[in-house]
Amino acid sequence: MKLKQTLITAALGTACVGAALVAIEAGAAGPTAQAPASAPAAINYAPGVPALPDPRNVYSGTGAGQLSEAVKGHLERVYVPNLRGNDVWVIDPETAKVVSKFKVGRAPQHVVPSWDLQTLWVGNNAERHTDGSLTPIDPRTGKPGPSVPVDDPYNMYFTPDGKSAIVVAEAQKRLDFRDPHTMQLQYSISAPGCGGINHADFSIDGRYGVFTCEFSGQIAKVDLVERKVVGYLKLKMPATRFKEGSSPLDPQTEICTATKGMPQDIRISPDGKHFYIADMDADGVHVVDGESFKEVGFIATAIGAHGLYPSRDGKKLYVANRSTHKIHGKTSGPGSVAVIDFATEKVVAVWPIPGGGSPDMGNVSADGRWLWLSGRFDNEVYRFDTTSGAVTKIKVGQEPHGLTVWPQPGRYSLGHTGNLR
Question: Which of 30, 68, 250, 260 is 20 to 30 A from 91, alpha carbon to alpha carbon?
Answer without folding.
Answer: 68
